[in-house]
Amino acid sequence: MLLRLTRPNEQPTASAPARSLLRRVWRHKSGRIGLILSILLVLLAAIGYVWTPYDPDLPNFALAMKPPSGTHLLGTDEMGRDVFSRIFNAAHRSIGAAFLVLACSFLIGLFVGILSGLMGGLVDTLMMRLVDIVMALPSLVLAFAILGILGPGFKNLLVALILSDWAWYARLARSLAIGSGTRPDILTAKMSGISFSRIVLTHLLPGIATKLGVMATLAFGSMIGAISGLSFLGLGVQPPHAEWGAMLSQSRLYFDIAPWLLLSPAIAILLSVLSANLIGHALRDVTEVKKQ
Amino acid sequence: MLAVLVKRTIQAGLSALAATIIVWLILPLAPGDPANRIFIARGIDDATEGQLAALRQEMGLNLPLPQQFLRWFTDLMHGDLGLSFTTGRPVLQDFLGHLPPTLMMLGLALLLSTLATILLSLLAVMYHNRWPDKVIALYTEITAALPTFVFALLALNYVVVGWQFGRVIADVSWTAALMPAFIIGLDRAGGWIQLLRASLLAEMADSYAFVAKSRGASDIRILLRHALPNSLKPLLSAIGLSVGALLGGAPLIEAIFSWPGVGSYLLSALTARDYPVIQAYVLIAALGYVVAAFLVDVAIAMLDPRLREVRT
Known about the structure:
Helix content of chain A is 71%, strand content 0%. By secondary structure, chain A is an all-alpha fold. Chain A has one domain: MetI-like (MetI-like fold). The relative contact order of chain A is 0.16. By secondary structure, chain B is an all-alpha fold. In chain B, helix 6 crosses helix 8 (174-204), helix 8 (174-204) runs antiparallel to helix 10 and helix 10 runs parallel beside helix 11 (262-272).
């Protein structure tokens, strides 16, 4: 209640806590569809991590290239592996990886941005020059450079994507932190003698974190695209493990005889990007954060 | 105008300098002994200590890092990016040989998607909330939900191979470039249409449009003469950012269309750990990105007189 009182005249969107933001997204038509779809996908990914109808990585050449049927819902691939199990099992890799990369970029960006925004001086200059260097390159090009240094592999892919992504969040967090110095609620808090650390933690952090979170949600679709795209090129998840992009890459060879191999991962990618986009639309409607 | 040009040129120069630092860092950061890596990439697994020492001496790998950077940077300014680890040929020459096919396809894709964006956005605004607008909105949603490479893969397999529409021979000619460029362009256009349509609608609802209408201007005239030029700014920024995304996506796009450009060249270098080639790709992509951002800034300043003054 005290917090409410120290925030006069504030636009509800400026630093709305994440909880009420979620409620407003839920009231939004496409936001609700997106939320339901993404909760379903996350549940499926969690189940696919521990259990699948068949072993996703075990070849059975006697059953190779079977079209979709009652026993194999999405058919089997060129090594006789159940495509449904593989899509199911791959979900935690694609969705989880996108989530992990965005969460790390978000946290690093939040920390670096607020720190350099509040401290100013040498720390700010050094941090922002680093941000400038990272942002001088298109994200994917930087990711290729880092993968070139580290070599292909799923972990390296994640590291490469985090290292090329965090700077965007840091820059936004910094500009929000600097702009907060003149915000009426922060000034009021300062005048009422609330300690600096308390102002940062309870007044500054939630608002900035919400805005960065919106930005991360809007970036989810392109992150799924980057992860599956780099795996498509063989730079990410290594065989025999299933990943949607890697499955697409395998399926190209058999498109004319086994179209289900191409369509299943494509639809899985479509659904996960779509659910994030729907939430993103709703978020853009209820806040004013723009896409990168 | 001149002041804007000077300021943007300095900014572009600084960005390019920042990019060269990252490009250089690839070599010292790569794991293992650099001299040994060069021998391994050349197919010599058991280089003697004498051979390694000779190579270190030759390439200046014994020098302190800042000196190595200066040496590398001086070479770069003379157009020398070193020799490819695998072929032993100058990287820059090989690279520039692979550049025209990529520029051809990406340039054509940018052109086609800009045209498609302007035409379809105008159509959507003219038929606002009627079926052409709704069909276009659906199309933009589909392209937004599919990553470029998935869209390209589906379009290639269904439209081109399935319906025997167009050709899949990558013989690097303008006609061969047309099909991949068309598919990439259509995908790019999706996001741009959303952007241009929204800003066109905002302009059409502005008071000056109302004044123009009350003075007897037709809707088409207001749209083309007033709203479109005023809406081009966000589109131009998006096009500039897209150049970066396209350069980063080039390896994927070229892998899908078997297109023999710099992207394919990079992929073979990544597997062979041919670092000078990776450096060349990152450098040229960064320069392309910087130049595109520069051109977009200048174009926006030319479109909008208010931005011709340097703001402090």
